[in-house]
Amino acid sequence: MYRALGINGNTRKERTLVFFKKCIDSGQELLISKFSKKEFIDTIEYHINNLKKLPFGRIDPKIFSKYCSNPSLYEYYHFWRNGRITYGFDSFYAYIIGEYESLCKRFNILEDYKIPYDESDNEIFNIIEKYKDEIETTKIYGFEQSHRFDAQNYFFIEKKRAKNNKNIQDTKYYLITTDQKLKKWDNEHSANQPITLLPSHWMGLLLKYYSRTDDDYKSFVSFLKLKQHDNSINEHELQAVLSGISEITEDFSRQNKAMEVLVERKFTGVIDSKNPSIIKENAKSFTKDLLEKELEETHISYKQQLESVKKLNEQEKEKLLERNKKYIDEVLAEKAKSGLQDKYGDVIREIKRITTLKRNAEERLEEVYKKKKFYIWTFPVIMSLVLFICVLIFPWDVMEKITWIVSALIIGLTYLYLAVFGKSLNPEKYFVELKEQIKKNVYREFTVDLSELNELKELENELNKKLNKA
Fold first, then answer.
1. Whole-prediction pTM value?
2. Which of the chain's termini has less CB crowding within 10 Å, N or C?
3. Do 181 and 251 have their domain in common?
4. What angle, 0 to 180 degrees and rounded to 10, lies between the N-to-C axes of helices 427-445 and 314-393?
5. CA gap 152, 173 in Å, rounded
6. What is the per-residue pLDDT across 313-369, written as a single tens digit (0 to 9) for each?
7. Cα separation of 240 and 432, whole Å?
């Protein structure tokens, strides 16, 4: 899923989407187990929490593409953030989940929560733990929980297959993974058909058993030719380094210059520790020294130019300096005001868009709420009407029994509701909660984010004040 969403780079994304399409076109069904879904969510949250640990400023995302060993969620985040007015981590998380759901919808990918065994069974738990230990021994590196997810998925496919695993025609379930180490362990473990298959292997099978085109063959070859990077820094170290650099300067050209110098020195004196906080402070100190040196050189150059100017006529020099200063001040003031106006216009347009969505959502809310309220109240009205008709039709000795039955039924349902939900039935509170739930669903349907709207309004006020001063 990481590759399909583009978190591991656009090249892998394009090739993975081609692979998904070929699977769907050939009649295959793509499923995501509950273990894979949880691993996906946990991994996203883990990397976002890592981003939160070290404060940073605006970072040039192209630096990741240039220097990082492999595309990662850090690079994905900085490309997503670049140029945005609001870029909170909660909004980023919601964006990824939205992309995930769109991908599943596009390729009809289903989430499989039907577990063909009792997860609380101690014997099954021990088997999965045994698989986990063996996988961990094979991989050597990695997190224990990641190995456990692999073991759970492996056992899940085993149970899904049952005894239908003698040949490829009988075998209906496979675990598609890019993990070479997990594939190696599976080859040593599987007695019949392997549980795991690499995308390139599965693509080869599809091309063998189904019709293929030149594009299909090129896609297959592309899986075999994915580039392997061998740079001197990984994504975690690079994020820590850029966190330090961005606290000194958010100018992309200076960030790139600092990185070029660090790469030339092979990050000596910066990445001498595994602690991200120390790496960040080292990079921050290095960048500060580098820019101070640049400032000093600029100051020396300025002094040399000033000495040349002194040779000019003093009166002409004063006029020249005054004219230049006035021109620079005017240009800077106009540029600053123009930038504020552009940003203010973007904010106003975004507020109008969200406000329109909110108004449409509220109209939809009232429509749905009125319908549900009508349906709920219809039942007691009908019951009252039936009782009234019964009073007119039946004698009192019969109505007395009906009244007792209805009263007993109402009391019984009241106690049953109290026993099940732990609270008494309160129609007023129920309708308030019902309307709030409908509101959440409708806002989600119309993609209305009130926190983002409030942030934009605060930003509008702030920009308005700055424009009035300008």
1. 0.56
2. C
3. no
4. 130
5. 15
6. 666 767 767 777 776 667 666 666 777 778 888 888 888 888 888 888 888 888 888
7. 47
